[in-house]
Amino acid sequence: MANANSNNGQSPRSVESAKERGAYYTPEPVVRSLLSWAVRSTEDRLLDPSCGDGRFIAGHLKSVGIEQDPDASATAMQRAPGALIHEGDFFSWAGSTEERFECAAGNPPFIRYQRFKGAARARAIEFCDTLGAHFSGLSSSWPLFLVATAHLLHRGGRMAFVVPAEVGHAPYSSPLIEYLAQNFSFLQIVAVRNKIFPHLSEDCWLLYAGEKGGSTKEICLSILDEFYYCDKPPPVDVRVALSAWRCIWNWRLRPFLMPKSARDLYERVAQEDDCFRLGALAQINIGYISGANDFFHLRLSEAQDLGIPSTCLQTTVRNGRALPSSRLDETTVERWLREDRQTLLLRLRKNQELPNPVRSYLETARAKEVSGGYKCRTRNPWYVVPDVKIPDFFLSYMSGRKVLLVQNAAGCACTNSLHTVRLKNKAAQAQIRAAQRSLLFQLSCEVEGHPLGGGMLKLEPREACNVLVQDSSALSRGDTCIVEDGIISLQAWRHYAPA
Ligand SMILES: C[S@@+](CC[C@H](N)C(=O)[O-])C[C@H]1O[C@@H](n2cnc3c(N)ncnc32)[C@H](O)[C@@H]1O
Questions:
Q1: Is the domain of 215 the same as that of 140?
Q2: Which of 17, 66, 68, 110 has most ligand 1 atoms within 8 Å of its beta carbon, as the pocket-test mutant?
Q3: Contact 54/38 with Cβ under 8 angstroms?
Q4: pLDDT digits (tens, 9 = 90+) for 371-405
Q5: Domain stop point among 257, 290, 311
């Protein structure tokens, strides 16, 4: 069996560079499941746009595989001698081929935008643009592979692919889903909670699209705890109307993983007059990036020894883990200073006259080193840390059990270990304080945020803007149980395990 060893059949060299190429090969039962639905006849022509070592194309005689890695394509040729294999970039080939297919199956590379770049990315984005699917430069590679593959199918054709679980929340999943819904009569996504790839940190789901040439107004969603072999897509658990997916759920399927009762309650509460989105009440940003935390954050004893005046120092939260759970006040900051923690940010302004002790500090050998660092050398002057704000609240954005929303009663700034929440008007203070204690706020963070791996929940500023703010002390006992169930179910999907 192909995945008999711990590297799933890949050599040490290929494992080393696997991340670069998005090369994680698919377990055999998954390959067989997808193929048995996609291929209907021995006469069908099958396409795998990124065939790796050829495990999909080996399952059907009339196959075409594209693979850019020479080692992998050589293995594919041995494994699938009857298949036609093109070595090279899929998008270059797709842009010029006249070939069309009855079916496609595979597992596209999951290459994030930081690595999926240059001419390859430009070609892929441009190709999808011409098809009417518009992706930004921040897209991962896989949705572009699926759009281009869909284009190469005949009328009536179908495709079945492994996709990362981010199909349920990433902004770049929506152009793919819109494209498939406009071009296929049937679209099904299978969410699988436990890992399909035991050695990958990424959770993977499955995607099926059928009857090319039609269109659909819904996504069929199946929700499985565990992958199991099946020769057709598993039974549908939820029919997600695209209109609701777009408008109520911000183009995300993740909320449909929670029980219907929790979704109904969420939808109802979101429309109530006293419920607001956090972004309507406040501006949410990442904290400042100093570029050299050890240099720019001083202990009280250091600042005193150096003689740095207090006008050049700003108390700050250097590390989000130090925060109390609901309110940061002077007493806590005084304790941090007494404990001689690195709580004082060297805060200098652009045209400021520098006091002599500061000047001396900026001329030390360490300062010379820091000034040439990646962040500092692009600043003018290098020692002015930009975007230092004093927020009204801090928001934790990488959370285990609970997202913290902490009132800033101490006038502190914070590094990018936290998000800053600055009120748009004073009246919002009471609303946000009520949300601090609210279970609904916690549920909303689960719904609007996304899993980060390792059981963590991440909230990007754009996601935090969508979080619901309402005083849930008015929730009935029954509704409280529904909200709790919603939280527990979404925590389970991000693999959060309570201690
Ligand atoms: C996730 S692996 C999947 C391989 C195989 N389909 C499977 O499921 O086992 C993705 C493959 O895509 C290949 N690849 C990455 N970028 C490519 C590109 N632009 N064109 C063709 N293949 C590419 C990688 O080398 C890798 O072998």
A1: yes
A2: 68
A3: no
A4: 999 999 999 999 999 999 999 999 999 999 999 99
A5: 257
User: Which residues span the domain enclosing 430?
Assistant: 282-493
Q: Which two tokens stand for residue 147?
A: 């759009």
56 ligand 1 Cβ < 6 A: yes
Q: Residue 21 C-alpha to ligand 1 middle, in angstroms?
A: 7
Q: Is residue 266 part of a domain?
A: no
Residues 252 and 323 in one domain: no
pLDDT in tens, 230-241: 999 999 999 999
List the residue whose alpha carbon is closest to atom 6 of ligand 1: 51
Walk across the sheet containing 84-87 and list its strands.
84-87, 63-67, 46-48, 101-106, 153-164, 204-212, 184-192, 218-224, 238-241
Residue 6 lies in a domain: no
Identify whether residues 211 and 314 lie together within a single domain.
Answer: no
**In a shared domain, residues 222 and 293:** no
- Determine if ligand 1 sits within 6 Å of the CB of residue 142: no
Q: How many angstroms separate the alpha carbon of residue 189 from the centre of ligand 1?
A: 21
Q: Are residues 81 and 217 in the same domain?
A: yes
Residue 404 lies in a domain: yes
pTM of the model: 0.91
Number of domains in the chain: 2
* DSSP codes, 194-245: S-SSTT-SS-EEEEEEEEET---SEEEEEEESS----SSPPPPSEEEEHHHH
